[in-house]
Structure formats: structure tokens, C-alpha cells
Amino acid sequence: MESKVNILMVDDQPGKLLTYEVILGELGENLVKASSGREALDILLKMDIAVVLMDVSMPELDGFQLADMIRQHPRFQKIAIIFISAVHLTDLDRLTGYQRGAMDYISVPVVPELLRAKVSVFAELHRKARELELLNRDLEQRVLERTAELRESEKQLRQRADLLDLASEAIMVRDFEGVLQFWNSGAEAFYGWDRAEVLGRNVHQILRTKLPNSAEEIESAIRREGRWEGNLVQYTKHGREVVVASRQVLQTDAGGARHTILEISRDITAQLQAEDALRKAEKLAAMGRVAGIIAHEINNPLDAIRNAFYLLHNHPSLDDDARQYTRIAEEELTRVAHITRQTLSFYRESKEAVPVSIAEILNDILALQLRLLERNGIVLEKEYSSDGPVLGFPGELKQVFLNLIGNAIQAMPDGGRLRIRVSDATEKGHQREGIRVLIADTGSGIRPEDAKQLFEPFFTTKSTKGTGLGLWISKGIVQKYEGIIQFRSMRLLRGNITAFSVFIPKSASPQMSEARVLSSASLR
Amino acid sequence: MNEKELILCVDDEENQLAVRKLVLEQAGYSVLTAGSGQQALDLLAGHPIDLVLSDHLMPGLTGTELARQIKAQDPDLPVILISAVNEIPADAAYADLFMSKLDGPQAMCQNIAAMLARSKNGSSS
Q1: Do B87 and A516 touch (CB under 8 A)?
Q2: Is domain A6-136 in CATH 1.10.3720.10, yes or no?
Q3: Residue A337: its chain B contacts at CB < 8 A?
């Protein structure tokens, strides 16, 4: 609905004002009357006037003077003014002097239709201008509101980004091609890559991500269900392998056109390692229990058999041959007893650590293996430049070197060279004085993929022959002496060389673990 | 010649018990056998036992528990526990000696002889 506009009529003669009122009444606009120039100015200041209709000749302030004053006021510069006057040339000249604003005139006698037509045009013009202004103002208001909204959402985004940076998780946003758009401080700290280094690049190439399923499967799951969760193996900038629990969520912008993927990665490397260690510890505890049960179940009948052979051995009915057989059986049974003691318990023969000659221990072991060395055609090279007395338990140290020498011999079924060297040595890092024993063979060598697991319990390359405990037990013993056990295996065209080196510091003071002792020594 | 020393041999396994009895007899001792700790306590009441040689892991009374009860009645009676387990139990000290079956018959006889000699010296002085 169109609103009315105000039309101001100015004349000092009430009769004329009445006449104009009658003529313009038909227009249906709001008519305001003023009987002098001053009154007209008062009204102009108070009301929004569309058209001023005025007589030129008025006492005090005539029409031209009033028009001058109106025009000087900036608010009224565009107001339409219609003069009613007898037309003189001079008057027309003055009219053209008004540069700005609408200006018109009506000559007397006033033709009602003409006056109505002219006023109507200006009234309409004003109305349109006013509507335009309203529209304009509305538009400006909307622009202001929208600007405020944008400012608010930008603030929220910045707050959200700050929050994302506070999170310890690595948070990133990428598109379906993997191109990175956002990378929080958590990601910088965790992966070691700065924002500037990775933004715009393919994130999963940088992190060398190993996916649990195919990339296509994951992508289709994200598109279908809007999210995907799983564990990823990745690498940090410094090459450390990490496992992360990854949550990937599809993000669609307001238009629904642009899709991005929000990825949140939580480091679970340590957690997995702890779980793994726990599993291993449980496995070991279980092994300990099983070993205890087996020890008991084997040792009991073994004891009865040994006693029986002991009786048989002295039995008067036996001839010399039969007595010889029982002697062999008894010897072998003693060996079985020795083996179950070695493998199923952690046997130690004395309570206090004693000075142990490493060379003597090695010679004892080699004496037992001499037949095997000969049979396999293995050449033994001994090089002892130190007798190497260290403080320890002979049984334990024997076990370490028996394992290493036994492995070396088994690695050379078709002959080779076994080199054993004992020397005084100083540890590089800590400058500790000690003994180094080197046991080198020219056997089958150690495959690189086995190297990492070599000292793990239950790891064996001898299929059914090995328990997988030898090196693990050896490492445990060496560590108890605060020593170092390490190996190098070189696979060369003309043969392999595998060398185990054991360093035992002279300062070592190993303690015996009470709970594992099985000893026939009196407890009193 | 002195009268033979009397050893009470305790084990829940029949074969073990029988063969150990023979080994001890061959070594010159008289031997009484008991298939459980309770039976051993009953026999102790009516016989002049010089030494008790008992298995440790038995149903009912264990060797260490048997040793504790024997020592409560007669602290001077030597008790040797002979076991197949690979760990010495916490209360092993109730016995005079806790030895492994893996040590074999000769070691067992030596331990018994040494224990009896010590016991005799102890009571005579």
C-alpha cells in the first residue's frame, strides 16, 4: 500500500489556500497549509514535505526569498517547489538560477487540472524517492546484520581453531584427494611436521600411512556412513613408526557441494607396546608355571628310574656286560637330570658370587663339544689373551657360553671355523673395564628379518629342535651382570660370518634371585 | 656291630617309595615307609625313628608341614625333604635339609649319612 505524502501550500491569503485545497483534494494526499514564509519554514523543519506550493508575492518573505532559504538548507535541497505567479521574464530568469532540485511554476489564473497534474508528478516522485530510500536503508541494515553475522562466525571459527590447537590429538582436514587444508598444533607436535611444510600436500603420502583396508573401501565407507574409524601405522618426520587410532568424519559445507574429511588421530603406540609387553609377561609367567609342572612330572619318575638303575648296578645277578649297560644308562640319566635342571629351573650352585675364570668355563664347554666339533669337521681357533676372572655364578656364565657355542656349532653342519677370543676390554660409552668374549662362526648366518627377534623368548629358527629360549635366557643373564650381548652377521658371497660378542664388566656384582634356587646345600 | 639306624621314608607315589626303600636298605639302613604325611605321624608315635626322609609335594600334609609337626614334637629328629619341584618353598627351613631329587641316589645317601652323624654327635655331646 502506498502511503500519503505531505504537500505544503503557502499563501498569505486564506481564500487562495482554500482554493488550492479544493483543487488538490482529489489527489488524496496530505495537505498542509501555511499563511506565511516563516510558518512554512517551521512546518518544513517538523515534517517530511514532498512538494511546496507557494505564491511568489507574499508580505515579509516573498516566494523567492523563501525558496532561497529552503535551498540553503541541505535537507531541503531536493524538495520540489512550485511557484504560482504571473509570468514575467525576470521571474523566469530567477527560476533557472536554482540549479538543484525540482522547480516548476504555474501562471495565474490557475488551471486546476494543470496544478493537479504538476503536484501529482512531484508527489509521486517523492513517494518513489522515499520508497527507494527505505529500500536502501533496509538493504544497508541487512548488510550490517550480515556483516555482524560473518564477524561472529569468524570469531567462532577462530575460537574453534584455538580449541583444535589446544587438543593433544593430531587434527587435520583434507579433501578426498588427500590434500591437506588444516593441521593443528597437536599434529605439528606429534608428527614433527610444521603447518607450512604440509598444507596443500598429500598428507598420507607424507606420513607414509599404512591402511588396514584398501583406500577405496575406506573412502566408500566415509561417503556412505559419513565416518570411518581404524588404526593406522604412520611415520613421523624423524622416521619413528607410530600407531594411531584414527577417526575420519565427512564434512559437508552449507551448499552441500564441497566435501572434506576431518581426521583425528590419537597416538596409541605406547599403549600397544604396553599391551604387547603385558602379553609377553603373561606368556612368560605361563611358561614358568608350565616349566614348574613339567619339572615336577619329569623329575619324579626320573628319580625312581635312577634309583632303580642304582640298585640294578650293584645287583649280584648281573654279569659284567649287563653291569656295563646299567652304567651307560645311569650316565645318560644323569645327563637328563642335568638338562631338566638347566632348562626347567634356574639352577645355581652357590649362594654367593665367586671369581669365575671365563677361559676355564669356555674350555669346560669346548671339552664337552669336542666330539661334535670333530664329527662336523669344524676347525676350532682359540685366542685367549685374558683369563678374565669376573665375579659371578659359574652355572649362569656356563649357560650363556654353552648357548652361544652350541648355536655356532649347529649353524655349521657341513663344517667351518669356530673362533673364540677372550680379551680384556674397555666399554666405549661408560669406560667400564671388563672382559669381552667373541664367538664367531662361518655357518648359515642370521637372516636380517630374524635379527630383530633374536633375543625374544620362544623365537627359534631350529623348528622343532630349539626351545627358543637359549638366547633370551643368555641375554637375561648378561644383563644381570650389567653386561652387553650383541651380534653381527655378515652374509658374503664366499660365506657368512656371524659373531656374538659378550662384554662382562669387572665391576659386576650379580645377586642371586632367592625364589629360583634349587640347591642341595643345607639351609641351616 | 651297632643296630641298624631306622629311617622313615615318606612319599605318595608307590614306585618311588619302593625303590627308595631298597636303595636305603642297600646302604645299610632299616626302612619304614608311609604313603602320606598323616601315616608318617602315626608311625612316628610307635617306632624309634632316627631320621625322616620325605617327599615335599604330597596330597594332604606337604613335606614342610610334616617337618613342622615333627619338629614341634621332637626338635632333634633330623628331617630331610627330597623334592622334584624347581623352587624351594618358603617354609622349607622347618626341615634340616631340602634337597633335589635330581641330585641322585648317591648324593641322597651321602646327605643322610652326614645328617645322622651330625645328629649322633649333637646328642652325645
Answers
A1: yes
A2: no
A3: 102, 104
